[in-house]
Design goal:
Elements lengths: L1 H24 L3 H9 L4 H36 L1 H15 L2 E4 L7 H14 L5 H14 L1 H4 L14 H13 L6 H11 L2 E5 L6 E3 L1 H5 L4 E11 L2 E9 L2 H7 L1
Parallel strand pairs: 2-4
Antiparallel strand pairs: 1-5, 2-3, 4-5
Helix pairs in contact: 3-4, 6-8, 6-9
Length: 246
C-alpha cells in the first residue's frame, strides 16, 4: 500500500513538472517582457542599457566620419597630392601630361617601353629591356658594382652577389632604380630625363642626345604608392585625359 501511494505521488509530481515545463516553453517574448516589467527598477535598467548601445553606435558613426574627413584632408593636402600636382604643373608647361604605369615592379621598364613607342613607333617589351639592362651591368661590373650595396648590411656587393643581382634584374620583377636607368640609357644609346617634384630633372645619358640620339621622358614619384618609389611615362597634354586622371 505504501509503495502504491508513493507511485501516485511520484506520478503527480512528474505530471506537474511536465505541465510547468510546457508552460515555460510556450511563454512568448512579450509575456517575458510583461513579467519583467513588473519587477521594480528592471525596466529602467533595460532602457538604460539600450541607451548605452545607441550612444555607442552613435560614437562609432562619429569616429568613422572623422576618419573619412581626415583621409579626405590627406588626399587634398597630403604629400602625395602635392607631389603629383607639382609634377603635373611642370609637365603642363611643356605640353605634356602623365601616362600612368602599373605599380608592379616593372614600372621603370614599362615607362621606358612606352617612351620608345612614343618616340620610335614601337617598343622592345619589358623582357627584352630587362635582359639588355642585365647585360650592360654584367659587362661593366667595375662601373656599376660600387653603386650597389647589400640591403641588409649596407656593404658593397661581392662579385657573386653582384651577378645574382644581375640575374634578378633579368628574370624577376625587381624594381629598377638609378643604376638600372643608367644601364638602360647605355643599352639603348639614348638620353633619359626624369622629372620630379623636388629639384631639377635628372638627366642620364646626355652624351647620346648631343650625338643625335632621342630623349625619353619619365616622371619619378616618391610618394605615389605606399609600397615605395614609382616611375610613370608622359604623353602629349590632352585636357579630357587630364580630367580622367583627377
Amino acid at each position: 500500500m505504501k509503495n502504491y501511494s508513493q507511485d501516485i505521488v511520484r506520478k503527480k509530481r512528474n505530471c506537474r513538472t511536465s505541465q510547468l515545463s510546457e508552460s515555460i516553453n510556450h511563454l512568448s517574448l512579450s509575456d517575458n517582457e510583461d513579467i519583467l516589467d513588473e519587477v521594480p527598477g528592471l525596466k529602467q535598467h533595460r532602457i538604460s542599457k539600450a541607451q548605452k548601445r545607441r550612444e555607442k553606435k552613435a560614437l562609432q558613426v562619429k569616429e568613422r566620419e572623422l576618419r573619412i574627413f581626415e583621409q579626405e584632408a590627406e588626399n587634398v593636402y597630403g604629400a602625395r597630392t602635392i607631389e603629383l600636382e607639382t609634377i603635373k604643373n611642370i609637365l603642363k608647361e611643356r605640353g605634356l601630361m602623365i601616362y600612368e604605369i602599373p605599380s608592379d615592379g616593372n614600372c621603370l621598364y614599362c615607362a621606358i617601353d612606352h617612351q620608345l613607342k612614343m618616340c620610335h613607333g614601337n617598343g622592345l617589351g619589358v623582357t627584352e629591356l630587362r635582359l639588355k639592362t642585365s647585360t650592360v651591368l654584367r659587362e661593366n661590373s667595375n662601373e656599376y658594382l660600387p653603386f650597389l650595396s647589400h640591403p641588409d648590411t649596407g656593404e658593397m656587393l661581392t662579385e657573386s652577389q653582384f651577378y645574382n643581382y644581375c640575374d634578378q634584374v633579368a628574370h624577376t620583377t625587381a624594381w629598377g632604380g638609378q643604376v638600372e636607368l643608367r644601364a638602360l640609357s647605355e643599352a639603348l644609346k639614348c638620353c633619359v630625363e626624369v622629372i620630379q617634384s623636388e629639384g631639377p630633372s635628372m638627366i642620364v645619358g646626355e652624351e647620346y642626345l648631343k650625338a643625335g640620339g632621342s630623349k625619353l621622358i619619365l616622371t619619378y614619384h616618391r610618394r605615389m604608392y605606399s609600397l615605395g618609389e614609382h616611375y610613370n611615362s608622359v604623353q602629349p597634354f590632352c585636357q579630357d585625359e587630364e580630367e580622367k586622371l583627377e
